Amino acid sequence: MLADDSILLREGLVRLLAEEGHEVAAAVGDADQLIAVLEQAAEQGQKPDAVVVDVRMPPTHTDEGLRAAMQIRERWPGIGVLVLSQYVERRYATELLTDDSEGVGYLLKDRVVQVDEFLDALERVSTGKAAFDSEVVRQLLMRSRRSDPLGTLTAREKEVLREMAQGHTNAAIAVRLHISQSAVEKHINAIFDKLGLVGASGYSRRVLAVLRYLGT
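The structure corresponding to this sequence follows.
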């Protein structure tokens, strides 16, 4: 299901997804309509695998989409949610991840034209994984070394952390950074140690743990 007040973008996404073999159950222009069609689908036992929703929609164009995304996460946790935003909005990105990052994604709208990247993010959230735009992660990680424990990380550890925050597995990080998987595991252990997260474990937990240290 799609929710975006831009008719051009909405219809463009419908056509793109249809061409890629995906079925779009509904495409609406505001958050209230999205929740209404989801409620109807749930009653009929036809919940979608994922929802794509814009952060800012009518009537106030502030955070309607974000609030709808969080409501979906609470009411139908099995549905993946991919949030689209025109700009990196740090407060919204952080708020979306304060509970559980499984099946959650945050992507800049510019990435939609990069079809493979958009489809990859949608596939990830629909299968219960995380998908975060690399630019969103980069800006969230920009904190002063003097006040942020992230400043104690080495350059390689920061690279691993950015990949983790985008939702990549250890195996995927190893391929993307051209290092061994055991090296990735060592870097991750060092990251958790420096950030005081030795007890953190699990794919989505580590993403959430990283983002909880970002602040707003």
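Residues 35 and 68 are 7 Å apart (CA to CA).
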